[in-house]
Amino acid sequence: MSSADAVTRNAGAGEPAGSGPTLLACHELVKSFGATAALNGASLELAAGEIVAVMGPSGSGKSTLLHCAAGILAPDRGEVIFDGRAIGAESDARRSELRRTQFGFVFQFGRLVPELSCIENVSLPLRLVGVKSREASRRAVEWLERLEVADVATKVPGEVSGGQGQRVAVARALVTGPRVVFADEPTGALDSLNGERVMQLLTTAARETAAALVLVTHEARVAAYADREVIVRDGRTRVG
Amino acid sequence: MRRTLTELWLGMRLAATGGSDSQLRAALTALGVALGVALLLFGASVPTMLSAHNARLQAREPQSGAHPLRTAQLLVDSLGTNFHGADVTVVALQRTGPHPALPPGLSRIPAPGEMLVSPALERLLRSSRGAELQRRLHARVAGTIADAGLSGPAELFAYVGAADLAAHGASAITSFGSHGSEDSSSPLITLLVILMVVALLLPIGVFVATASRFGSEQRNARLAALRLLGLERAGTARVAAGEALFGSMIGVLAGIAGFVLILRPLVPQTDIAGISVFTQDVHPSVPLAILALVLVPVAAVAFALLAMRQVAIEPLGVSRQGRPPRRRLAWRLCTPALGFLLLAGLIGSSDRLASTSGEVEASAGIVLVLIGVCALLPWLVEAAVVRVDGGSVAWLLAVRRLRLDHGTSGRVVGAIGLAVAGAIALQTVFAGAEHGRTNTPAALRGLVLATEIEARGSDPAAAVTRRLGGLAGVRDVTVTGNAQPGLPVAIASCATIIELTEASGCHRDSSYVVSGLGGTDRPGQEIRENGRTLRIPASATRVGIRPGFSNIGSFLNVAPLLVTPTAAAGLGLRTTTLSVALRVRPVGDDEDRLWDALGELDPLAQVTDIDGSIAPRDLTIVKLRRVLTAGAVAVLLVIGASLLVSIVEQLRERRRVLAVMSAFGTRASTLVGSVLLQTALPVLLGLVLAIGLGAALGAVLMKIVGLPIGFDWGSVALLAGAGVAVVAGVTGLTLPILLQQIRPEALRAE
Asked: In this structure, are residues A88 and A204 in contact, taking their beta carbons and an 8 Å threshold?
């Protein structure tokens, strides 16, 4: 079987579920850390506005696949194409610019900047692309309201609950209007109730803004929010 | 008790075997403690060193009083010269009987033309420049002086044998050794030494504090794991104390070894503040040594425990306080205020510095003022960062970070501030001392006096005037002759008489009675001195000393009878010795050429350099200033090391946040800028505070010793610049680590 055997619930293997053209494609990615092979020919395709769940057991390589797809890691072999542009071999500065302007990120535990208030955390990506402070704050408040955490806007992350923090992190990921959001175990540190709420808000917001979403998880109930699933095992993707 | 010991022991074992982070933390604590212990042991040796130095000086002091076993059979004349900036002490000896008193360190009195020298002087004489000095001393080296006769191994000292000391007014002595007061150092020197020790030691304490916090995140995680296994909250503190104790104990041993094996052997090779010390004189005072050996490790443990105050170690993990409590200003202001109050009590009574209570008061005052920098800085930084807003992302990140936690960098920056404040206070004292020196009355400025120069030839005064007047750097020469010792007669040329006195005219056989110099003699009066009778010529004219020349007149022994050489011959007198007053403004080697010429005229001449024109008058100040520079460099290096540890630790703690920020595209320059600003802002505030408190401290110290207050702003700028340079240098050194941490690849550690 080809390593590019990602499957979807609604479409054939290797093809995006959405009706639009492929926005992000990873082909035959190989990535090793020292003697440990993390990816061994993994592939992934994503259409605009599509939600894909990348599933697999711990250590299977799903986070590495996300990092390569997002231009955080450069693969040893294979290629990553975003919007027709091969980003795997691009300079760090170009990839950083891409992450700033086209991508959004949600991590496990939120990973908010602890010294900034929630509103400053959300407005930070806007400030990084040159939006004025006042305008960035206004847009940040909008997103905090949309994600039902406007009441913690002036608090620092250490003063809010895990669920609130993760919703703030979702707001931070979406505030710049990215074309792809990468979420790495976004509910991993939350109880099921909070996890459900965060997933509802994240997927709803992604769909409303037409952002594609790559959702790395090992939980079936989280994966259920996706349009299709890709299983990663031993560094390879296969039909789920 | 048993449980406490078990927990302490567990902490020590974890420090030794708990991985590279624990070992690095133990090594850094050990380094800080070792530096502190070694320096404190050295500091504890200073009193014994000074005391031994003074005892050695007193042991060779000539005594002319009655002696139960011996009559005076030795003439002694203390001389001195300056060779390329180094003081050379020369003592001329002439035996006048078969059993003269022997100075310590000598087995015999040198014969005329011989000299017995210190080993350091012997080395100097053997060096390439030695011949020049040898010519000046007019004697050949016949042996060396034993250690017992020297104040220190680097002392340049010589006993020269002489044949005609009586003519030079030398004292007849019966024995050597006095029992004067033990401490002869001036209040200024005492204050300077206290200030330097404090300014050097406090940053070491900060280094210990910083080092003990290194890797605390990993340690706290381990303590949380122990809590899960049933360790009580108080037990975590004991385990942490055990960890700190392990590093401290190694540090104590390393500090003792460093003192014994490195510092102590280095002492004889250094010449500090005009004092060199033999190794055998370097031993710490026992109470101070015990205090140092206990205080430093206890402080290290205390710092480690204090660092745990802001975290709650629970079985399920470590949590930090969301926002630190607001800092209070009142007690922070009290620290320097109390210090200034203590110092103010010494104003007008600097003599109290000679007593232990005065020293303690001054030390406590200085310590409190300098600690005030560390106490006030966190409040100042907090007060500043809550007021600033807006700006770039780098600025926002830096300011917010400082709002949340500026304790760590604040402490290290506080140490920089403390060192700079101490150094500024010292520079102020030095500037004041220098100002005091240059404040010599105009009439005495640039004045060098040489007396008891043996008169040779038919017109000795003219020969001396020609020899000295032809030297570069000599602007004016005034020579008077002295008749037989003890007779109140000065012999001078008409030109000199007209220069010094208000005489309207002068003939080759004129004589004058100089008024206004304390004498009551009249023309025609008979003077009896030392068994001789002299009648003042009836033709002598009464004259006064010209305004502005009274000092020179008295230095040149112009009193009360002033005669021309012809008039002196008429009185049956001849010039035996000459006194010379020189106005000098030497440049470069002019000083040594002048010393050479004076040595050539008469090696036994007494030279007095009124305001340090040809030899720095207060070499102690000059040397202390050099020590300060070396000390400031050492302190800034130690602080730089603290800052390095602190920033690296901070980066390690923040590696996840940095990686996440980098993942969503934050530019490296933004993150580097935020780290730089985060250090630079407290540094800037710290320097402002340090300059203010340092200058105020210096001013108070000057007031205590009664010197004019003056600031050397050039030095202040230099010191502040050095502080900034340390920060910039350290930040530069941490850049590779920072750039590594901000790579989004670091997310893999998630």
From this structure: no
Interface list for chain A against chain B, based on CB atoms closer than 8 Å: 33, 63-64, 67, 70, 72-73, 96-101, 103-105, 107-108, 111, 113-117, 120, 124-125, 127-128, 133, 156, 158-159, 172-173, 184
Query: What's the rounded Cα separation, in Å, for the pair B245 and B253?
Result: 12
Do the Cβ atoms of B361 and B342 come closer than 8 Å?
yes
Chain A CB contacts of B661 under 8 Å are 113, 124
CA distance B405 to chain A (A): 8
Q: What is the reported pTM?
A: 0.64
Q: How far is B434 from chain A (nearest CA, A)?
A: 50
Q: What tokens appear for B477 in the block? A: 């020469």
Place of tokens 């240098």: B729
Listed in sequence order, the residues at least 6 apart from B5 whose beta carbon sits closer than 8 Å to its beta carbon are none
Spatial separation of the C-alpha atoms in residues A20 and B455, rounded to whole Å = 117
What CA–CA distance (Å, rounded) separates B373 from B413?
10
SS (H, E, C) B454-505: ECCCCCHHHHHHHHHHCCCCEEEEEEEEECCCCCCEEECCHHHHHHHECCCC
Residue for token digits 């990506």? A125
Whether residue A128 and residue B666 make contact (CB cut-off 8 A), yes or no, is: yes
Looking at CA atoms only, how far is residue B249 from chain A in angstroms?
A: 37
Q: Is B623 exposed, middle or buried (0-12, 13-18, 19+ CB in 10 A)?
A: middle
Q: Are A114 and A158 in contact, with CB atoms under 8 Å apart? A: yes
Nearest by CB to A128, which of B322, B665, B748? B665
Over its length of 240 residues, how does chain A's per-residue pLDDT go in tens digits?
Answer: 333 333 333 333 345 555 568 889 999 999 998 888 889 999 999 999 899 999 988 888 888 999 899 888 888 999 999 988 898 778 878 888 888 889 999 887 777 888 888 999 999 889 888 888 899 999 999 999 988 899 999 998 888 888 899 889 999 999 999 999 999 888 877 788 888 888 998 899 899 888 999 999 888 888 899 999 999 998 898 755
The structure tokens 């900036």 sit at B85
Is the domain spanning A3-239 CATH 3.40.50.300? The answer is: yes
Report the residue from A116, A125, A184 with minimal CB separation from B400: A116
**Residues in chain B within 8 Å Cβ distance of A103:** 664-665
B60 contact A CB<8A: no
Residue B9 Cα, gap to closest chain A Cα (Å): 35
- State the smallest CA–CA distance between residue B15 and chain A in angstroms: 30
A72:B657 CB<8 A: no
Query: Is B663 an 8 Å CB contact of chain A?
Result: yes
User: Across the interface, do B750 and A158 touch by the CB < 8 Å criterion?
Assistant: no
Q: Tens of pLDDT along B34-57?
A: 887 888 888 778 778 878 888 888
Q: What is the 3-state secondary structure (H, E, C) of chain A?
A: CCCECCCCCCCCCCCCCCCCCEEEEEEEEEEEECCEEEEEEEEEEEECCCEEEEECCCCCCHHHHHHHHCCCCCCCEEEEEECCEECCCCCHHHHHHHHHHCEEEECCCCCCCCCCCHHHHHHHHHHHCCCCHHHHHHHHHHHHHHCCCHHHCCCCHHHCCHHHHHHHHHHHHHCCCCCEEEEECCCCCCCHHHHHHHHHHHHHHHHHHCCEEEEEECCHHHHCCCCEEEEEECCEEECC
Domain extent listing, chain A: 3-239
Residue B636 CA to residue B730 CA, distance in Å, equals: 11
* Dist. CA A75–CA A67, nearest whole Å: 9
Place of tokens 């605390």: B216
Three-state SS for B127? coil
ipTM field: 0.78
Q: How far apart are the first and last CA of chain B?
A: 42
